[in-house]
Amino acid sequence: MEGLIRGKTVGEKTQRYQNRIEILQGTLDLLILQTLQWGPQHGYGISVAIRNRSGELLQVDTGSLYPALHRLEKQKWIKAEWRISENKQRAKFYQLTAAGKKQLTRERSKWSQLSDAIAGVLQPEE
Fold first, then answer.
1. CB 47 within 8 A of CB 24
2. Both ends of the chain: CA-CA distance in Å?
3. How much is the average pLDDT of 60-87?
């Protein structure tokens, strides 16, 4: 899974692949599940939501997004159905299942623990 973090510098055009990092394993699943918590969405819409909600810092490549969606669907955390998009095109829309909502809660808890642990290392108490 790869994500993209975009650095913003005054007076310079942001370069698309500058500061590219790998997203921690499992983080993309969390981001997708969270995005679908807001309602059903097609793949491109999920990608746009992640980019917009991250202040244009995270960008999910299609080569990472669609395998993750298929994996989540196989685990029955999301389900998909074909619909017509706002652009009048046929698209596969994904939505959370009850199992997916439970998994989102677990993933958010794990993320919170990880964030606290990293903060403890970066800012140890004196």
1. no
2. 36
3. 95
Q: What residue numbers bound the domain in which 43 lies?
A: 2-7+18-121
Q: What is the DSSP letter of 106?
A: H
Contacts for 31 with CB less than 8 Å, ≥ 6 apart: 50, 58, 60
13 found inside a domain: no
- pLDDT over threshold 80, residue 4: no
- Cβ(105)–Cβ(57) under 8 Å? no
- DSSP-derived 3-state class of residue 14: coil
Strand partners for 82:
92
Q: Are 17 and 5 in contact (CB under 8 A)?
A: no
SS3 call for 43: helix
Nearest residue to 65 via CA among 45, 86, 83: 45
